[in-house]
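Ticket #4471: structure output looks truncated?

Reporter: J.K.
Steps to reproduce: submitted the chain below (463 residues) through the standard prediction queue, then opened the result file.
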Amino acid sequence: MGGLQRRLMLLLLLPFGLVMLVSAWLHYQAAGTAALQQDQRLTRLAPMLGDSVVSALEAPGSHFALELPRPVLLLAPPVNEFLNERDRQAGYSILSTEGQLLLGDAWLPTVLPATSEPEFMSVTNAGVTYRLIAQRVNTAAGELIVQLADGSDASQHWLQTVLTRVLLPNLVLMVAAFWGIHWAVARALRPLMALKTAVERRSPRDLSPLAPDATPVEVRPLVHSLNRLFALVNAQAEAQRRFVADAAHQLRTPIAGLQAQIEAWGQAARSLPEQDSLSLRVEQIMRLRTACRRTSQLANQLLALSRADATTAASQAMQRVDLNALCENVLALHLDAALDKHIDLGLEASPVQVDGHEWLLRELLINLVDNALRYTPAHGCVTLRCGAGHGGAWLEVEDNGPGIAPSERERVLQRFYRVPGTAVEGNGLGLAIADEIARAHATHLQLGAGRAGQGLRVRVAFG
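Returned output as attached by the reporter:
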């Protein structure tokens, strides 16, 4: 029996056990109530037993013996009825104030109450427990002590009653319920076990959704969660496949160019004079360096694109990121590139923090700044900004370069897309990587024109 079945069985059978305990407790309370009623009845009957003494007869030879006169007893109807209906389970005795038995059963103990208040006790005779009352009363024969015993004490029979009327029937019922519930639980869990078997038999490549209509209503949330997990795993696998395909496609061109440059360099060097060959070598080396740089940048961007995948980043915990410090760090990395092109690279930052992945936000900002420096002409201006407003924290990079037409702003976020007619070399991955990172932080890139409608302003607003 599985863990779920055991828990269900326990939860379903536990109420039966509680009912048994409550029933036993109620029977015990009922027995206590019956015992109290028994004491109350004995309290009423004891004075009547005293009133049943009508006179006293002097015992023969009483002038010379110590015997007391024997009372004449005419039982009151309630007392007579009590003794008759409890044949062999009732008894009585009448004693003198000194404890001498005058009438009744000799097996009853001698109890001498000091006052007229009744005294109760339990006595055992022949295996039967009796409830005994002893009371000092005034009778026609003088002051006597009357005793009544009742062997039908409900409190002494309650255990037997509970065993025969409560526990045994309920135990039989529990055994029957156990097998019935076991069958019902196994039948009810059959669709869940079928779902378990279907998932276990699936191929690792089979990420198609499960059919929720084939499962009970209670299990459908689990099926929907599994389908969501399958969709996420499928999306991640598809992203990896797409990344590998894109990497292979994009690396093919620069590597082929490198190979062509090297082949052309070798052939030209063999056919030219030494001086011309040296000049050609320098030119070819510069082209080779450019091609190597582009290949290195493409490889780094493809790696960043893979790391920035939203489904991958979502599985990692976020932390507090200081955007001001991040902007200062990225600015320092690009100062040399800005000086080479005589570009004014500035920073307008306010202290602000957000929850995010620091390494991803750093990659986002590096791609935005690199993109801005690449497309901004010499003597231009690129500005990094960060701050906080009513909507939350934000990060911004603005340049005064050629900008992007509004009709192209959605398309430039696609991987490897470049605006037609762009003269600057690139791979079409900078903005795509930045947008992927933004989506991993539940936001997106906002593209707009710079100041006075010139250049490009890229903004990331955090909620």
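Triage note (M.O.): checked the attachment and the full token line is present. The CA atoms of residues 407 and 419 lie 10 Å apart.
Status: closed, working as intended.
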